[in-house]
Amino acid sequence: KQEVTQIPAALSVPEGENLVLNCSFTDSAIYNLQWFRQDPGKGLTSLLLIQSSQREQTSGRLNASLDKSSGRSTLYIAASQPGDSATYLCAARSNYQLIWGAGTKLIIKP
Amino acid sequence: DVKVTQSSRYLVKRTGEKVFLECVQDMDHENMFWYRQDPGLGLRLIYFSYDVKMKEKGDIPEGYSVSREKKERFSLILESASTNQTSMYLCASSFTASSTDTQYFGPGTRLTVL
Fold first, then answer.
1. Is A23 within 8 Å of chain B by CB?
2. pLDDT tens-digit profile of B61-81?
């Protein structure tokens, strides 16, 4: 059974730093790996989707990588800003279902 | 832009009450999903639907039922609410079941059962 883990559960960094969020999964037989952002009291917004045949995806200051063989994905945020403060969740798609990590709560200090 | 709306942002109900949570999407998506989100556990799938009047159980369907009479609307029903169903409920939709399609989420309903 697929399990997805995100460590750390919370992270606080000064504004301007580059940072990496980690996501690991136990079963490499995935269709894709997705990263979402959740702001307090709001739903989730899709950030990046990496197909199983891809190694990475980029959107602006965000870059997500996927290494199926090691069961890992990372989300790289360049030049962090206070507006990046949110909870970041990763989800691995197995068959029709997304299996979710518990998220990393990110705080960017001005 | 895809819009997924949920009928209530906050709900407070009493144990044993029947609770309806409504979700509507405006982009003609085939698939709709209900999740619950609890601290430290991430999102867990309750039910999903890939077509009108079709439903499939997710990981935690016990104590819940769903209804999809129209393509744009997917309802979650708690037949007899219990305190362990206090949670954030999130609705989502996706265009198809393709691996390239992401899910779009509503703002969530925070349900408290007393």
1. no
2. 999 999 999 999 999 999 999
